[in-house]
């Protein structure tokens, strides 16, 4: 993966830059020892690593603004970092950059139940947002698999979703406002707790912008009353394509479960060994969850099982109790970790029309055989957000490159059928060089011009999202 050549001029000024950072932050918030900065050399896309010049750990908006002002004046690139769980290399530093981590900014600033919102610092973890309100009967809907660790800042940067986004939407559908600091240290308030605001929808521009436009320090999030009840059902099949067709028919029928998750044979076995969730022994598994009153749950399940039986499932099984329901979801949310105990893997997240699921699953199988690499599938089937896991051996010369080539072909396939390169992981460096598969030159130029306005010196999160040749005349400085 190509990255820009580090600026020798910046590297030669490291002592001065660190000194200036220490003027605006306490000593324990500036990491500059060459050994200690290695903790920030990668995110969850750990195949790529580069120690940064330094890392800073501010505690509030004022400290973030002070750091960015220093880096703006010194013309030093800044890489914002949430919890480091990005699977696309979204927080990969360059050798001449400063990592700005928001992990210490994890407080709850305001909770308003009548108006159904919570305001938090952006370093707060996804799951702990629900933790702050669940005792009062509320929850925060987006639930990425990494929700125990991932930060709201990263969720906003990548517009994260999760298993339950089929009904509740992704981050952009649950984000009401942000406090954001621009590269020159200017603090801006975008959106707010109310349903609408005059002017341009800048909140929609910021959500999913991958740290290209500013550093989000606070977020106002929509919270919802917890449903009366919820029940997952397991539907097993002997073929992945048949399971995909079942998903398409459920959606076509107008039934709206809370979630429809898909796992194929290798994932089922790995997750069952890890979580003991009681998954059936089959080649493809759907986890379909419905919620509401007992009558509503029974009605929805009746429709879903009727559709499923047309596809000759090997088993249909409801969760016996709440404990088993939790194990079912523990298994699904542990899929990436469970597969990681077996092999190195690359996780993709292209999105496709639900009607294309059978065709795409069949083509992924063909591509897997062509490349001689196994692919395990686990994904949010209800909205077509694919998560193929390409298994490879990082210690075998050429295997990683072969894995990346297969991944690129799978993502091209997603675009060919009318989908897109990423559903929730973001572009980062992983899909950067494929952006021209989805966007024409004029489309990319329009996006680049937006960044020009927010970050005219191109110092924020360098080498991400846009192909390097597209931004060659604009980078860092």
TrEMBL record:
GO terms for molecular function: FAD binding; oxidoreductase activity. Its cofactor is FAD. The keyword Nuclease does not apply. SUPFAM superfamilies: FAD-binding/transporter-associated domain-like, FAD-linked oxidases, C-terminal domain. Pfam families: FAD-oxidase_C, FAD_binding_4. Keywords: FAD, Flavoprotein, Oxidoreductase. Residues 48-226 form the FAD-binding PCMH-type domain. The keyword Cell inner membrane does not apply. InterPro entries: FAD-bd_oxidored_4_C, FAD-bd_PCMH, FAD-bd_PCMH-like_sf, FAD-bd_PCMH_sub2, FAD-linked_Oxase-like_C, FAD-linked_OxidoTrans_Type4, Oxid_FAD_bind_N, Vanillyl_alc_oxidase_C-sub2. This is Glycolate oxidase. It comes from Gemmobacter aquatilis.
